[in-house]
Amino acid sequence: VQLQAFGGGLVQPGGSLRLSCAASGSAIWHHMGWYRQSPGKERELVAFRYTDGSANYADSVKGRFTISRGDALNTVFLQMNSLAPEDMAVYYCNARHPITNKESWGQGTLVTVSS
Asked: End-to-end distance of the chain based on CA atoms, in angstroms?
């Protein structure tokens, strides 16, 4: 599975962005989600959507971010609201096979939160 992420950019504090990730090849049976990495920090989970429809979020984004899958299940979106400077990072799309746990990563998209 190859992943390509879109939607990063510059936004003011309190603003919103929507990230998209498209999978080439079949990702229908994969769990999909988003991670992020800020300079000097480890990559961390932001939100993950499982094939059964359940999702989990980092505590820091709960109530502000929403993850969803596209109808074709080959896409995953991250709606980010009330963005804060601490959300600034490179965001990576991830797909994980539910049985083998084999992971695929997108190239990352930069989110900058600044006035």
From this structure: 37
Contact 42, 58 (CB under 8 A): no
Pick from 89, 85, 81, 43: nearest CA to 64: 81
Q: List, for residues 55-112, the tens digit of each pLDDT value.
A: 999 999 999 999 999 877 789 999 999 999 999 999 999 999 999 999 999 999 999 9
Q: Residue 78 forms beta bridges with which residues?
A: 19, 67
Where residue 9 falls (left for φ over 0; alpha for ψ -120 to 50; beta otherwise) is left
Residues 1/8, Cβ–Cβ less than 8 Å: no
Which positions ≥6 away from 54 have C-beta within 8 Å? none
Q: Which of 70, 67, 47, 50 is nearest to 59 (CA)?
A: 47
